[in-house]
């Protein structure tokens, strides 16, 4: 019972979130000025319920959380390692692995962060032209842009896999037991999750476009 | 092919594809077009571009700045600055500039200053009767000194690209940074007299002393960072880590303004901001790779030595070029892409790398307040709830001030480098 | 796009090293390679030389070679070991070569051939050795001259901090410490580190000899350095017989040109160091060599290259 309530709450929050993110896409100018069609909200709600968006959204949410946590952990790791490097140097202890460990954690942190930023649509883009377009055209353009990201990331994923397999057995300079593969694998993971995030944006936008058409 | 790629770049950018991805896509398609070069070099250069110890300074300096904002250290700096320059006509505007200069001494980037200081000072200025335009303009423009006064992330990146001495660049940034700040304050004073801006009440000396004592631990960060790097005690990256640790410690245990549970949010914010600019950097290194396969550096050198005989003209071209690039690109990717191309030419003209670095960094600092992509301008405009267009208009006079200082430094580099050369000739 | 022989029978070779200076011996070597290859093939081979432009890190060059993003590269043994070929590091053990002539007879003879086979086999034909270059002979330089090995006691020395090289210097009494090459000048200037070791052209170009902790040079000659000139083996096999022969010939000429450029720079920069006020002294190297022997044995065992080590030592005996 309690779980169900939580679940409902979660749905409600997600809907609000989607609404917030996409309101510029789906509302026309009058709406943006404060006049919101109830039917729009209703439409979104129905679309969400009907099309089983929920498990997908939940999965995306979990994925984002995992990546964000990983990114922050790696950030903490390289911060700590650099402090260790300074301390040990002044104690006269030679610790040789610090630089490599710091560099590779940094790469992981940045790639995980960059993927999360795709989900949050935070990567900087110019919206001058987009803002000038009207609803449907604007939604179509967003769909096109998402497709571009997906296509690009498919290439990065595939070529990234090629790099991973070619160089998997290369070793770290300071810790020969560690394989370079552990570093390279961050590329396909980043690209793969970027594909997932962009796909979910794409589906959302297609749905919203449909809702828009229904309500017109 | 080159033209086609440039066209693609522009089209993708205009239709709203995120700029970092535009750079990556152009790199990928460019590599497609070169026979003998496998496409896997694109993801490879993503990693290779980030695989540099110097770059770790970027998130760490952002972390330090975020800690300062969350730990309310910026509030204390504002109080101190207000006690010093508040009583002058246009006091809050002067405070805004001065606090940016103090903040710059701790922070390697400018955005954190705009956000932290702007949130407090813009509403305050409006309340005191300043027009919104001035409030937003001063906030955005003055935070550009963040990357001129050391420490500075762009300077670290430049040094990494050219093997110029980080210490020399840092010391070289002090005088221009102060000149820019002073120039802005003079302009503000003239404006304030004309428009009759208010001043704030004079602070009693005892109270001022108390404020000063309170802020000294925060201001010590500057001494630790700059002193540490110049004396060779630690590298720039290590300095950034020390700055973060130090800020964390003083705000948790000395000021007691930061709690352990605040940390996750600060770390997430740091990761978010740094992964945005560093992912763009990763993509830019793929595009840089493409440019080196095209051997653009050698081509540029040939072009400039054959067609641009004079050093001064070359410098002006560099400034104009980076002004343009800065309008739509962050300083870091812009440098990754173009510094390797202009460096051989600059060396041939006898321009010292540190001198070139100062020119490039100050020019790109202007890019922080030029639309469409000027992060500080966007941030300040958002905080002040003002349109980008109107915000930009108010920033123009300040840009002119930075440009004047820039031209002086470009043609009389001794202004910037005389003092540092006296202090530590071994850095040059 | 990793196409090889074009339809018109023309090939393009991307050749790269990691030194950005146009005066580096590597550049002289690769330009010679280009000159000979293009001339001999009447232009049906085109060589594009990259001086640091597609990678200033050797690890990047090796990766590019394997991916065929570069066709010919110059790398040092240390970076090759990261690809999983342990044996190559044999050539960088201190005092494994006792003179330039010893080094030359080793790499240009049977030892060199064996090493080339190992590299080719262990890399699955990704790397094929075209020739052995050198980056000069490395000496000690620091804040005092070495009169005997005991003078090294307690001195901090900038060198590798792990592996065989570090073991050697530790046994000799020094404290290996890690400072990046770019920061070393300041480190020597400001007493962060007492001493360093490298070949004349490298440290003199960086003005290390003008610092208080770099002005005393003792010619320890502990490392006659080896650099590998490599081509991607699969790509090489895809070329026509004629082109293959031309490439081998060009490589041979490049070896001569590079070694010559390096040797004349060694002389030139040694003179410059002395002119600038640095002091050079000689030292009895026997005690150093004695220390190095057990370390060499141990390392060769670990690299599974005991036979190769014996071959190299036999050559030294012959030359005595
Ligand atoms: Na700064
Ligand atoms: Na400000």
TrEMBL record, chain A:
Q: Where is the Tripartite ATP-independent periplasmic transporters DctQ component domain?
A: 80-206
- Swiss-Prot/TrEMBL keywords: Cell inner membrane, Cell membrane, Membrane, Transmembrane, Transmembrane helix, Transport
Localized where? Cell inner membrane
Q: Name one GO cellular component term.
A: plasma membrane
One Pfam family from the record: DctQ
Task: List this protein's GO terms for biological process.
Answer: C4-dicarboxylate transport
GO MF assignments = transmembrane transporter activity
Where are the bilayer-spanning segments? 68-95, 101-118, 139-161, 181-200
Describe its membrane topology. Answer: Multi-pass membrane protein
Which PANTHER family does this one have? 2,3-DIKETO-L-GULONATE TRAP TRANSPORTER SMALL PERMEASE PROTEIN YIAM
Its family remark reads: Belongs to the TRAP transporter small permease family.
What's this protein's name? C4-dicarboxylate ABC transporter permease
UniProtKB/TrEMBL annotation, chain B:
Positions of the TRAP C4-dicarboxylate transport system permease DctM subunit domain? 6-414
Q: Where is the signal peptide?
A: none
**Record protein name field:** C4-dicarboxylate ABC transporter permease
Localization per record? Cell inner membrane
Could you state one GO cellular component term attached to this entry?
Answer: plasma membrane
Q: Which domain of life is it from?
A: Bacteria
Please give the InterPro entries that the UniProt record associates with this protein. Answer: DctM, TRAP_DctM
Alphabetical keyword list? Cell inner membrane, Cell membrane, Membrane, Transmembrane, Transmembrane helix
